[in-house]
Here is the input.
Amino acid sequence: MKIWVPMDSAAKALGADEVAEAITREAASRGIDAQIIRNGTRGMIWLEPLVEIDRGDGRLAYGPVGVDDVPALLDGAMDSLGPVENIPFFARQTRLTFARCGIIDPLDLDDYQAHGGLAGLRRAIAMTREDIVQQVTDSGLRGRGGAGFPTGIKWKTVMQAEAAQKYIVCNADEGDSGTFADRMIMEGDPFTLIEGMAIAGIGVGATRGYVYLRSEYPDAIKVMNAAVRIARDRGMLGQSVLGSDHEFDMQIRVGAGAYVCGEETSLLNSLEGKRGVVRAKPPLPALEGFLGKPTVVNNVISLATVPVIFERGAEHYAGLGHNKSRGTATLQIAGNVRHGGLFEAGFGITLGEVVNDIAGGTASGRPVKAVQVGGPLGAYMPVEKFDTKMGYEEFDAEGGLIGHAGLVVFDDSADMLRMARFAMEFCAVESCGKCTPCRIGAVRGVETIDRIAAGDAAAADLLTDLCETMKDGSLCALGGFTPYPVMSALRNFPDDFATQKEAAE
Amino acid sequence: MTFSSPAPTDEDIRAIVAPMTSLEGPLLPMLHALQDEYGVIPDIAVPVLADVLNLSRAEVHGVISFYHDFRKSPAGKHILKICRAEACQSMGGEALAESTLARLGIDWHDTTQNGAVTVEPVYCLGMCACAPAAMLDDRVIARLDRARMDKLLDEAGA
Here is the structure.
């Protein structure tokens, strides 16, 4: 009998370790010969801890499993959810980037290969640099960290740059609320990120890579460090990648709790051991990045998607999606939702379908009021905009951004003035201090919103003006995009900004 | 963190950071190693790191003070980080944080009188689909309510 209990940190935060211990204990006391495998999560967080058991006729899912359920679980007396693939939330997905996540033992390289792992890297090794970069361009892959820049173009710039040393830097500083896809893939299928970085290295001629991983993810740090060691021991990394003439090795570096380090130039400064202050562009990091050398800076999901593009071909990947948003979006459904988790599907599904259909509405059972899409710097979308399709251009047209594709749902108890105030407060706490509109503007923004709350009707115009200044005058997205949540709250939910004076009248 | 052991010397600091001198961009790994060892960045580390890395003391100090993680004063025995970000707010995180601070009688960044727990804000633990969440030392706990938080605080001796 094989039993899978996730070691993903969300599952652990809901008691997976205790359940695994109880299963081990209970199985031993009954003399059951059970192999317990700690896998990643399948992404249906409301069912965690989700345990799967194979009694010889396929994997059956049970969840959420508590310690008290374990005796019944082993007796076969607990109701099964059936195979995971048949659960509607899962059945509707197209899993490419997350194809293996939750299926394999994350640190078993043989299991990884048995499920298609390393096929992409082997194919890339046999290709020329130009063909590797062209393959990524043809796939239509765009940066999944938020900006949506075409990955192939970035790689081409680095490939064509002449330098004695080039770098691949993976941005794993996933600080946006509502996002956990990076964490989930690093904990559930770390070799796919390593493989993607190796392909990137071979493609652009970089021999060294770094993953800049936030310190708030202790489990992901442990898994990634272990995976890099295994990859090195097994010849997937090192002087001769899989026995080829290509050299590539990498290290995991831990951040230190600064949100702004998710911005690529600030990240590079931090990686160099400096304060995480934003750099002006140009020069582009692709030409003068880490230690002044040509550097690919890509998000975790972008890099983790590269292996499947090489495994199945660029056409297969580009065949999915909508308009200029090709491939799959790894939606992270979060906040006040009944069914939260990771949902990977081709771009083009509408916001309303995601929230009402897939997520099943709010956890509280109250009406949905707003959905913040794209993290703390993303707009609050009202229910009236639920027909917006998930796509880079489509969200842009609605005054929002898809960002890292995280969705945080709020019910009607949310006070949008408070959320706008929080956005400014967060910007003030996390500003790196380089640009005045961000450093000072965020503080003034909190004060101005407090004036609105206190009944100063004129302050709303001042806030609008301040937001324009922050948008136009900040170097990076922290100061430049904080106006998105603030202004979307103000415009879409004017009732919450009606001053106390007006309310009294 | 109680300083029952003597304050670290110049040599102690050098011994801890020595294995990292060949790294590209070694300062953050060094600071993490020092904080793992001492629970704070000891004052004496500033001139030593400046010497080892050929930086000014002001530059080293600037890096230490830039990042939320690095402490100049010792924390309590346990550090409780409560998520303040949007997804946790959508599930009542703010009220939970307020009631926790009220029970402990302290504010953000403070330590309980018995030295058991320091409470810090954190912006996202990646538990956004099972909010609200907190982290006690390295252990993440999700879908918290007041009862679970009370249990956690009891365990930590707060």
Q: What stands out?
A: Chain A has four domains: 2-91, 109-318, 321-411, 416-504. Chain A touches chain B through 65 residues (CB under 8 Å).
